[in-house]
Amino acid sequence: MKNKVQLIGRVGQDPEVKTLEGGKKLATVSIATNDVYYKENGDKVEQTEWHRVTAWGKTADIIEKYVTKGKEIGIEGKLTHRSYDDKNGEKRYVTEIVANEVLLLGK
C-alpha cells in the first residue's frame, strides 16, 4: 500500500512562499477541484472541494516561479495530517497534501 494523491485543479490564490533557516523554501497553495453530478430529477449539481498543498525545496521553487492565482495545475504527493496549538492554546488540526511533483497545465 502507498499513500499517493493526484489532483488537477485551479489555484485559488497566489502561493505563499517562505524561505526558512538554511535557505530551504516552503510553498503553500490552495487548489480547487470540481465534481459534477445530476440528481434524480435531472438537476445539475456542481461541488467544489478545496485542498491545501505544501511543497518543499525544488518543487517550492517551481511553484514560486510559475504558479499564480487561477492557473490550472496538477500535483502529485502524499496526504498528511498534523496538529498544532494556536496562539490561544487551542489545538488545531490540518490535513494537507505534501506535493513532490507539480505539472503546469493550461495557459
UniProtKB/TrEMBL annotation:
A single Gene Ontology CC term: nucleoid
Top-rank lineage group of the source organism: Bacteria
GO MF, one annotated term: single-stranded DNA binding
Single GO biological process annotation from the record: DNA replication
Signal sequence region: none
Keywords of the record: DNA-binding
CDD domains: SSB_OBF (cd04496)
Record InterPro entries: NA-bd_OB-fold, Primosome_PriB/ssb, ssDNA-bd
PANTHER family in the record: SINGLE-STRANDED DNA-BINDING PROTEIN (PTHR10302), SINGLE-STRANDED DNA-BINDING PROTEIN, MITOCHONDRIAL (PTHR10302:SF0)
Subunit structure, interactors included: Homotetramer.
Protein name: Single-stranded DNA-binding protein
Species the sequence originates in: Flavobacterium omnivorum
